[in-house]
Amino acid sequence: MIHPLPGTLGIDFGTSNSAVSWAAPGGTAQLIPLEGAALAMPTAVFYNSEDLRTHFGRDAVSQYLEGTEGRLMRSLKSLLGSPLLLETTEVNHQQISFQDIIATFLGTLRERAAQTLGSAPRRVVMGRPVHFVDDDPARDALAQASLQQAAQAVGFDEVAFQLEPIAAALDYERRLSRESTVLVVDVGGGTSDFTVVRLGPQRMQQPERRHDVLATSGVHIGGTDFDHQLSLDLVMPLLGLHHLGPQGREVPSRIFFELSTWHLINWLYQPRALAQAQALWTNYAERHLHQRLMQVLQQRQGHRLAHDVEQAKIRCSERNGDAALDLTYVEAGLSAPMTVRAIQDHLQSLLARTVACARECVQRAGLAPHALDAIYLTGGSSALRPFQQALQAAFVDVPLVEGDLFGGVASGLAYSG
Q: Is 17:406 a contact under the CB 8 Å cutoff?
């Protein structure tokens, strides 16, 4: 008889990236390598039509970008709570539901954890945002139930959930030497979540921490929304968005919204969708714009375009300088500038709504902004420089502490078990 490992696996199943951590009872959480030495990997699945294998993470993305025939799936978490989750899609001549695709990804995380631990863990704490779905408790509950079902389907006997920002707080607490009141900011690919919590070395020993959580809030805005907006504003006009046709009317915009949304791009490659896109040529006064659109769709370059927007955004933020998208695969000599100012301008509304949610969380806690001891940042999109600047302007003189952006939540989930 194989006895289960004593301890808890924490899985941060993210919209853009995922991470896994293990903690034995009373021990220190250890992040588990998922791709070589990498402790986080893109939440991506690629079904290779050439060798009929399934690829995950960076391998999945690179397979697609190299032109391998197949289906790339990303932003899977965005489907939780959506009617699309139980719909099926054709993969290598078979129908498979998006629920099963999520389970396949979770199963891979469990297998890779087992390779490190020597045995497959059976107890897991899954992270969840404050709201999977804004202002719809029924769909929110359905989203968590679907994720629990996927985890159970791949062999987890005990499945618990913890709010992702609270998990991040539990990880940060281990670095504190005195009691502090902290706003935890977790900005991932699909959601931005906030928690005001009391942390400290003495509190860490308490078995019940419910009263230390002063307030939570969340909004369904994250890195994929930033990428979506930048794609619409900076790239899609090159394919015809806002272009006035012969009758003075704009080209129908729906196709550009779908082409800027990771989990909708594949639908545009279906024969019916391609025929509808081809028929749009009558709406164009400048036919070369329509030719660019068809080049992207017929050559299945939509995910590459979305990936390039994301990478240019990251380069801009990391360097605090301008970048550019090389679009020569769409048309010779074509490029799109990505500037720091453009990111600030085009994301202004999204960033304002996100920071407003942070302020609301602090108000719910009954605190003035200056009463915070620190703002703890986690989640890859919290590194976006314009976001940090907007947050600092709202909470003047409160220090920003950047944590483990991709692994902190997973470690906290393991501790919370």
A: yes
Which parts of 86-157 are beta strand (E)?
88-91, 94-97, 123-128
Gap between the Cα atoms of 216 and 364, Å rounded: 8
Do 217 and 248 meet the contact criterion of CB atoms below 8 Å apart?
A: no
Q: Which fold has domain 180-221+348-402?
A: Nucleotidyltransferase; domain 5 (3.30.420)
Distance of CA 150 to the CA centre of its chain: 18
Cut 0.90: pTM above it = no
What is the spatial distance between Cα 99 and Cα 90, in angstroms, rounded to a whole number?
Answer: 14
Burial 391-403 (b: 16+ CB within 10 A, else e): beebbeebeebeb
Domain 8-164 sits in CATH at 3.30.420.40
Reference 295, options 308, 304, 307, 282; nearest CA is: 304
- Give the C-alpha separation, 209 to 154, whole Å: 30
Question: Per-domain residue ranges for the chain?
Answer: 8-164, 180-221+348-402, 224-346
Distance between CA atoms of 18 and 47, rounded to whole angstroms?
19
- Output the pLDDT for position 4: 60
Question: How would you write 214-279 as a 3-class SS string?
Answer: EEEEEECCCHHHHHHHHHHHHHHHHHCCCCECCCCCECCCHHHHHHCCHHHHHHHHCHHHHHHHHH
Residues 67 and 61 sit within 8 Å (Cβ to Cβ) = no
- The pLDDT, as a whole number, for residue 2 is 47
Residue 138 makes CB contacts below 8 A (sequence gap 6+) with none
CB count in 10 Å sphere of residue 253: 13
Q: Burial of 329 by CB count in 10 Å (0-12 exposed, 13-18 middle, 19+ buried)?
A: middle
Q: What is the pLDDT of residues 126-169, one digit of tens each?
A: 999 888 887 789 999 999 999 999 999 999 999 999 989 889 98
Please name the residues in contact with 316: beta carbons below 8 A apart, sequence gap of 6 or more: 322, 323, 338, 339, 340, 343, 385
Pairwise CA distance, residues 399 & 392, whole Å: 8
Q: Identical fold at 8-164 and 180-221+348-402? A: yes
Residue 349 CB-density burial (10 A; 0-12 exposed, 13-18 middle, 19+ buried): exposed
Among 373, 381, 315, 380, residue whose Cα is nearest residue 354: 381
